[in-house]
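REQUEST
  id: r-88c1
  op: predict_structure
  target: NADH pyrophosphatase
  payload:
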Amino acid sequence: MSTKNNIHVLSRGVIIDQDHILLCKTLDLPISFYFLPGGHVEHGESVETSLLRELIEETGAHCKIKRFLGCIEYSFEPGHSSICHNHEYNFIFEAESESLKSNHKIPQLEKHIELIWVPLHQLSEIDFRAEPLRELVPQWLKTRASDVFRSVMI
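RESPONSE
  id: r-88c1
  status: 200
  body:
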């Protein structure tokens, strides 16, 4: 079965420092765009564990999850920018790390992405995907922390 026909589950992190958000920028696609750090949840792995693993892989930093922000179901037309799928669920968490600061460049640990600090007010001006997150992330960050997410993994 082609992986383009599967539904993918991803965990993503919103890391904020000095009114900047940490984003990944694609380096290996015909079109460059930005997205939240994180990635695919592996079988038997919780979305929180997945996010912490992905953040270490992408940034080299140990992070802490502060709170669940929201979940977005997203689909898009397959094309050059969709290598493996076009239907996904993204679990979005606010995260933090004492070693990730907006005034320090983050070393490139993966050849297909570059990590960049972007001013929060510029989210609507860049090619930030999934597109609804341009409005949702700032809205979610303004809400008070709530206890709406539970993971019960065996």
